[in-house]
């Protein structure tokens, strides 16, 4: 019975997780893993624990990692718009999660327009990443519920709009 467990789990995954849900899961995990690795890397660079350093041009310009994140987001955004491949979407989603983590990890920098990564304001980036990761997790855990909520709200709005249009027509006729 225990030997078949991995096969049963794989079959359950294939039955219940379509390519869109798989893309959402991969994006969420890539976002979290990238952020954690990035924080570890920056700590290692700051305290000289790693044999690597910041990316600095010959003129002394420090290229922050949100620049790479923006470039990744541009590429995967283009791919997401142009590709119609259920097979590739989960991989594009991984790129999106990586790019989003690179950008949001330096949210405090673009909010303050100066490098505050290791200052008190730098905590804003961590708080935002935790919030985004939590919201993505809530979405992933209950995406079918949220889709149903959106459908219900749309139905109510359509009904309200059609009622307003009838009322508008009646007023127009009586005027």
Write the layout of secondary structure elements.
Elements (H helix, E strand, L loop, with lengths): L4 H12 L2 H28 L18 H18 L6 H16 L2 H6 L10 H19 L1 H32 L1
Helix pairs in contact: 2-4, 2-6, 3-4
Number of domains: 2
Considering DSSP H and I runs of 4 or more, what fraction of the residues is helical?
over 70%
CA radius of gyration is 23 Å
Secondary structure tally: strands: 0
Q: β content, as a range?
A: under 5%
Q: What kind of sheet is the major sheet?
A: none
Span of the ends, CA to CA: 78 Å
Order of helices and strands: HHHHHHH
Arithmetic mean pLDDT: 89
Summarize the model shown.
The protein has helices at residues 5-16, 19-46, 65-82, 89-104, 107-112, 123-141, 143-174.
Q: What would your notes on this structure say?
A:
This protein has 7 helices and no strands. The chain has 175 residues and is an all-alpha fold. It has 2 domains: 129 residues, no CATH class; 33 residues. α3 packs antiparallel against α4. The longest helix has 32 residues. The chain starts with a helix and ends with a helix.
Question: Which descriptors apply to this entry?
Answer:
175 residues; single chain; 2 domains; mainly alpha; 0% strand; extended
